[in-house]
Predict the 3D structure of the following.
Amino acid sequence: MTIHDLIGVGFGPSNLALAIALQEQPGRSQPPDALFLEKQPGFAWHGDMMLDGTHMQISFLKDLATLRNPASPYTFINYLHQKRRLSDFINLKTFYPSRLEFNDYLAWAASHFDAQCRYGEEVIEVLPEKRGSEVSLLRVLSRDSNQQLHERLTRNLVLGIGGVANIPDCMQHLRGEPRVFHSSRFRSAFARQQAPRRIAIIGAGQSATEIFLELDGHADIAVDLITRARTIKPSDDSPFVNEIFNPDYTDYVFNTAEGSRAALLDEFMQTNYAAPDMALIERMFEVLYRQKVSGVERHRFLRRHDTLEARADEAGVHLWLNDLETGQVKTLSYDAVILATGYQRQQHHELLKELKPYLPDMRVDRHYRLVSTPQFRPAIFLQGSCEASHGLSDTLLSITAIRTNEIRDALARSMAPTQAFSALHQHQAGEMQRQAAFRS
């Protein structure tokens, strides 16, 4: 069985940026043997949230490569040049391309690495491969779309598996209900609904606001936007606040004492969570204001309402809502309920459960490598699961290019002993061949 230098689990922006960084690694004539396994059938980045008129919330300069290597052929600028749209994009006078265009950029970059990616394969388990008392390799098990199992060996592992839908406790029992779905599945799940008339959106962040405005374009649909918050606050993207997304801020966060670090993350939480763009908030306010002018209430903003219970039957999905101002509980019925309730990023614990004896507390070092016991040789890196230790930028595109540079360098240091052993082994084999030829 071939032993790969690296297997990457997932092939979204994080591991795509790593593939680029490995290809551009200075001082190497040949990049490491890296293979990426992606459960989706092809490259897609938030495909079910590609709504008309939606734009990026960060600058296009925070792409897959620019902050690491502005001369890289994989920058967004070169993408525009290759697509012959650079001059037209400049005329837009914006740092924020549409989400549709940025997704096309990512897919364009990913297409250069098709030979290194196996799409339609979901990694289901990672096992230790022991040589004596030492874990020297990892055995990666995956299942393809035909339910066929695959096993591969690797010296190192990088997890870039993104987030999984965060489903509120009161909704857990409705996971299989097609009329209740997470915002990450909006387009495909909404297309399967049978003529919905009244829809609830739970949440008040960017996704919730975008979906509200999208549904406003359907004249026969009424929407209730339900949130525990008193109001919708915009994301703070002012220059000094935005410094927390600078690459060097990661050092500051990581080196801050754990208790102080939690307070620091909480202080800046609104830069990234439950904080839509101001332009979207203004559009939503205008929609609700026009209702007041016309006297026809089609949509409602149910602020300070907490969802206590949910049930589904033939008549619809019924929500028990607690009005946090009055304490009264009321039951409202809907044809569909959309959960714009964010993501969880702890699924690496389940994927690596067989390795837990070697990975105490699942802690990472500054370079995103899981801290392991002395008898564990493989390096395992996490991308997008280190917000608590590395800061709010960890789950965003903001530091992707820089983070992959750090992982690439740490990976090179990890592989150095292996490469030295391999070189010695090749030298010894060559010497034996020369001696055999001399004797003959």
The mean pLDDT is 92. The first helix runs from residue 13 to 23. The CA atoms of residues 425 and 431 lie 10 Å apart.
